[in-house]
Amino acid sequence: MHGKYILPALIVILLVVSPVAGSLSKISAGAPVFIGENNVDISSGLNGCHTIAWWQNGSDVNSVPAVTNLTIYAIGSDSYRIYHFNFSPGIFSGYTGSWYCVDSKPYYTAFTVNEPQIDIRVWDLDRNSDVTGQSVPVSSNVTYRIDTNLAAALSPLNRPNSNPADSPYTFTLTDPNGKTLTTIYTGDAGNSSAPLLIVNTNPPIPSSPYFWSQGEAWDRLARNAQGYIIYPLGTYTFTITQNLNGMQDSYPGNPVDYPGLLSTTANVTFVSDQTAVPSTTGPQPVLTTQPVVSTTIPTVQVTTVATTSPLATKTTYSSLPAVLAVAGMLGAVAVILRKK
């Protein structure tokens, strides 16, 4: 074989021997699955049976099932479907819970069907509270929180070939200007002790609730090399979408048209840290005033003391205006001169 044909041949071989779907496609017997998943390997759950049925939750499985004899593949026919099974919304919506293999008794659970659920919230770590849709100080210690039943799909007990690298989630963070943030500053630019983090756009979410670990390190007061604030005040939007085993192909349109199922969004508005306003009921400041300098002549006090009694009181006369006082003094001088 010529060398130029070796690489294409190897690619073809790998495509043939490699699984069509990712590592999350194969389920264990009785494992949870989600409406909308495609190309799921349910062979372990069937364990050789061909027909499944569904009973209302709590019903006797020895009674007539609500959904009877759903044939996965006919005896003697190609078994391709059991390795590429689609949990079509048209068939499984409204029929959540255990589906049983009913070829023969005793019946056993092949898989458990669930409606996918996913929710994101902005979370204040210091107060351990939901601040979605609120305005908070820019220095608040916040992250995002995910609550979902899809975490079961990353459990090795349910998906034996599961790999965190095959996360079905996509996360985006946008700033008030609509710009998608791909990095997180943990301090001012150039600070060697504050590393620049790459935003994890495919979080594994192995359990629920799940908290974004990078959120706590995000310094929204960080400045760039020119000294300007990197993150403007305003509303930031957190969005998570999921596409477990091509689930988005099962629902027409944009994932955002299926909130809580394929996509979920939360936002928070960062505002300036506010200075505490002094209480009007607390101690009041002491007011000080500058002394007022009088422009009038100092007052003259004349006191007479009676000699008839040691218990006599002092009599004080109010001072005269300055002009009258001067006039009186001049009059006294004139009298003296006249006598001479």
Largest beta sheet: what is the strand line-up? 1-5-4-2-3
Morphology call: elongated
Distance between the termini: 155 Å
Helix content: 10-25%
Low-confidence stretches: 1-21, 275-327
Mean pLDDT: 81
Number of helices: 5
**β-sheet strand percentage:** 15-25%
Structural class: alpha+beta
How many β strands by DSSP? Answer: 17
Radius of gyration: 43 Å
* Major beta sheet summary: 5 strands, mixed
List SSEs in N-to-C order: HEHEEHHEEEEEEEEEEEEEEH
Would you mind describing this structure in some detail?
It is a single chain. By secondary structure, the protein is of the alpha+beta class. The protein is 12% helix and 23% strand. It is built from five helices and 17 strands. The protein has helices at 6-17, 43-46, 80-83, 89-92, 322-339, and strands at 32-34, 51-54, 67-71, 97-101, 108-114, 118-124, 129-130, 135-137, 142-148, 169-174, 183-185, 196-198, 210-211, 234-242, 263-271, 303-304, 315-316. A five-stranded mixed beta sheet has the order 1-5-4-2-3. Strand 6 (118-124) and strand 7 (129-130) form a beta hairpin. It is elongated. The model is unreliable at 1-21 and 275-327 (pLDDT under 50).
